[in-house]
Each structure stands twice: as C-alpha cells, then as structure tokens.
C-alpha cells in the first residue's frame, strides 16, 4: 500500500498513533500497545510490524536524549543477551505466517502483555513489603527471550521488561532511563530482520518521516503528563485501551 493510497482518515489514524508512540516513549509505555493496534488496523498486519519500527526507533532516540543519564548499565547488559534468541524466533515466525495469523498473533500477544501488567500491579504491594531481589540468570535470559519475541512479532515487550526492572528494584527514573536504552538497542537490532523480510520499504520510511512531527508532539505531551498525572491511574486507562484494542483485532 503506497503512501499516496492512504485515505485522509487513515492518515489521521496514523498521526494519532504517532502521538501515542511519543507518549509511550517519554511517559507510559502501555500507550504504545494502542499505537501498534492502530497501525495494524490501517495497514496489513505483517507490514504494520515493520512500518512502525522506524518510528519507534525515533521515539527511542528522543527517550534516550531525555533520560540517558539515568540508565542502570549493569541491569541493561544482563538483560540484552537473552533478546537475540527471541528476535530470531520472532523473525522466523514473521516469515512463515500469513496476514490473518499475524493479526491474531499481535492481538494475543498484547492480551498476554496486558495480563502480565495486571499481575505486576497485583504484586507491587507485596514487592514493597519483601523488598527488591536481583533476578537470577535463568530469569534474566527468559525475560530477554520473551521480550525479543514479543517485540519482533508485535512491538510489545514493555510489560515483560517493566516487571523485570521493578523486581530489580530500580527507582522510577532509572527504570525509564534503562528502558530507553534497552528499547533503542533492541529496536535497532530488529531493523535488519524487518528489512530482510521486506517489512521496511522506501514507502514505509517516507510515511514514518511524515509522522515524526506527531511523535515529537506526543513526546512533549508525555513529559508533561509524567510530571502532572498519577501514573498508576493513567496505567489503568491505557491497560483498558490496550486490552480493548487487542480484542478488536480478534474479530
């Protein structure tokens, strides 16, 4: 589907998705699930996974620029090695499934991620009582692999890594900074796979370039939101939108 073939309504939809990507990168990561679903609603599901990727990388660059000094590098490097097997499995999956299966896979992955977020919220109070514990090696590798597969197939690794970072006991700013660097590294690693599968094209790059202003507007909005809103309440809303959007993809 060429850039000029998109309707005005589709462009508005993608512009809103671009804003949400910006918000997700600088404030509440759960909003990103809605952007993923919006891209999959406008474009073929398989194509959408690669079409949104350069936009996500742009958002990662903005997030790193804002929070680069707050990264916990030890936690980051322990998590990264496990990602590669997940990326390889996700790339193979993208290569063999059709658009209908991919659409349902995105939906199911997002629903699973929503469930993980609910589990995370239920255990936050318990974690406050018992104190953080550094995850052992197997947990770190499995978390990285799960994040790699989820991000390769549905751009939806946020809940998995958020749980890991919470259990590692990182303060909020360190969580945001570490996550910013992690997603930048992982999304850049996904580019060769997506390009090799033909999911990133000159047309999709032009489309993403046109959406960058919307992303920057969303990034600015996210910075304002994270300062003024209670994050827990906002997460409830974004979780509901993510689950509802994923359910629509199953119809």
SSE diagram, text form:
Elements: H1 8-26, H2 31-42, H3 45-51, H4 53-67, H5 73-79, H6 83-96, H7 99-130, H8 137-154, H9 158-167, H10 172-196, H11 202-228, H12 231-250
Helix pairs in contact: 1-2, 1-4, 1-11, 2-3, 2-7, 2-12, 4-10, 4-11, 5-10, 6-8, 6-10, 7-9, 7-12, 8-9
**Order of SSEs, N→C?**
HHHHHHHHHHHH
| pLDDT < 50 stretches | none
**Main sheet characteristics:** none
Number of helices: 12
Mean pLDDT: 80
Strand fraction band? Answer: under 5%
Q: State the helical fraction.
A: over 70%
Rounded to the nearest angstrom, the distance between the terminal CA atoms is 22 Å
Give the overall silhouette. globular
Count of β-strands:
0
The secondary structure category is: mainly alpha
Return Rg in Å.
17 Å
Written overview of the protein:
This protein is mainly α and about 250 residues long. It has helices at about 10-25, 30-40, 45-50, 55-65, 75-80, 85-95, 100-130, 135-155, 160-165, 170-195, 200-230, 230-250. Helix 1 (about 10-25) packs across helix 11 (about 200-230), helix 2 runs antiparallel to helix 7 and helix 7 packs parallel to helix 9. It is globular, with a radius of gyration of 17 Å. The chain starts with 7 loop residues before the first helix and ends with a helix.
